[in-house]
Design goal:
FAD/NAD(P)-binding domain, 2 domains, 7-stranded mixed sheet, 18 strands, 32% helix, Protoporphyrinogen oxidase, Zeta_carotene_desat/Oxidored, FAD/NAD-bd_sf
Length: 460
């Protein structure tokens, strides 16, 4: 039996928010950590592109001032100033009856209307009051224990005015999470909304949504362009577990522990020998694909008529193809060259699935033509278009996943672990950062359930 110490204490697969935050925490405990990333840059679904003076967020758009404790702890830890995480002015509006209605999802919208009828606003106030009373039971980190149990979004809203669902909750779920409200569990989205206070106090990163990822990566051992193929257990000549081996194109790394900070379907593929109690939950963690088209413009166009809003939600009853139009140049002044504009288009879940495998030209033409009714002159002002595709966009939490979540979070500590928003069943960057904390605690504990080769055998 070899007594050589493995080259690394921990190898982390994935340099998105979860993987980098986890590596940051573990490195501070003195552990030797390496992060492997298949893409050519860090950030994952919080990556930012920089082209000709345009700052283009490819995935996540904003963070919340409240309900994001792990995120804000990391922001403070890295020394970011308030100026580097500015508020987004007038974050969201709703398209209805041929115009844009401001302050949707904001407490002020209860007074101004935000596109809702008086009856719907009263019912929305009732929903928010209930959420305030029951906030302790709407822990976004424990969605399986909320008062709505395993109901879908549509089922949970049946006792409220139809407009609350059709013109607020469902557009939010479809536009920003890619969710089908008829099949997706209500607990995560309601817990998220109650924890963050809706659209009040939303912020962004001045220098791009990948700000934290870049800052973290600069301090860590990160290898990009590394395509991991499999994570396997290592054993000695007697079949006793001695760590893990991470195989990638062109080589392998040996470590004491490994963490898969990747979407659940990817983790399942990379770790085919996962224990049965882990596979059951992993297989229920479906993902909604996400597609986003960023349009660099020669002028600062936006949804009209509007009042400076950043994002406009479009209910499915008004448009079956386009869910959200964002004026990214309104998110922060430094996002575009002076006098220019940047608009992004997010299709509905059904249209996303249809366009995901289509050529860029097809997706751009179809959605820009659709968006002309909301942003007149869009195609004439177009300078360049960038299509962002995420086959695993955000975890689409089903009632079945909720039912298995508690058991999964209490599983034994093993040599291979996980991190990511799916682990918390919370579809946002806070979910990724919070699981980095919980996984770090597990990795710092001794393994309580080792995987041995039955009857002994050759070392792997």
């Amino acid at each position: 039996m070899s007594t050589e110490r493995a080259e690394f204490d921990v190898v982390i697969v994935g340099a998105g928010p979860a993987g980098l935050a986890l590596a940051h925490t573990l490195s501070r405990t003195g552990r030797r950590v390496r992060v492997l990333e298949s893409a050519d840059a860090v950030g994952g679904r919080m990556r930012t592109l920089r082209s000709d003076g345009y700052l283009i967020d490819t995935g996540a758009e904003m963070i919340a001032s409240a309900g994001y404790p792990a995120t804000w702890s990391l922001i403070r830890d890295l020394g970011l100033s308030t100026a580097e995480v500015p508020r987004v002015p007038h974050p969201m509006a709703l398209w209805r009856a041929g115009r844009s209605h401001p302050r949707v999802g904001h407490p002020a919208g209860l007074l101004t209307g935000a596109g809702l009828s008086v009856a719907a606003r009263l019912d929305l106030a009732r929903l928010l009051a209930w959420g305030t009373r029951e906030r302790a039971r709407f822990d976004p980190e424990r969605p399986a224990h909320t008062p709505v149990g395993h109901l879908s979004v549509a089922e949970a809203l049946r006792s409220y005015h139809p407009e609350v669902g059709e013109y607020l909750v469902k557009p939010l779920a479809a536009g920003f999470f890619g969710w089908d409200s008829a099949t997706t569990a209500a607990a995560p989205v309601l817990a998220h909304l109650f924890a963050t206070g809706g659209a009040a106090g939303l912020r962004t990163y001045r220098d791009g949504m990948d700000t934290l990822a870049r800052r973290l990566a600069d301090q860590l051992d990160v290898v990009t362009g590394c395509h991991v193929r499999e994570v396997a257990h290592r054993h000695d000549a007697h079949g006793r577990p001695v760590g893990v081996r991470v195989n990638y194109d062109g080589g392998s790394l040996d470590a004491e522990r490994a963490v898969l900070a990747v979407p659940a379907p990817v983790a399942t593929r990379l770790y085919p020998t996962a224990p049965a109690d882990e596979r059951a939950f992993l297989k229920t963690c479906d993902y909604a694909p996400m597609l986003r088209i960023s349009l660099a413009l020669d002028r600062p166009l936006a949804v009209r008529p509007g009042r400076g809003d950043f994002a406009t939600l479009i209910p499915h009853t008004h448009d079956t193809e386009l869910a959200v139009v964002t004026a990214d140049h309104r998110k922060h002044p430094g996002r575009v060259p002076e006098g220019r504009g940047l608009v992004s288009l997010i299709p509905t879940p059904a249209t996303t699935k249809h366009l995901l495998a289509q050529p860029d030209s097809v997706a751009v033409e179809r959605l820009t033509a659709r968006a002309e009714r909301y942003v007149p002159g869009l195609r004439a002002a177009l300078v360049a278009a960038t299509v962002h595709r995420f086959p695993h966009g955000l975890p689409e939490v089903t009632p079945r996943a909720l039912a298995l979540h508690t058991q999964f979070t209490t599983r034994p500590v093993r040599a291979v672990d996980y991190a990511g928003d799916w682990l918390a069943l919370r579809p946002c960057s806070e979910g990724a950062f919070s699981t980095a904390q919980t996984t770090a605690a597990r990795v710092c504990e001794p393994v309580t359930d080792a995987v041995a080769v039955p009857g002994g055998g050759r070392p792997s």
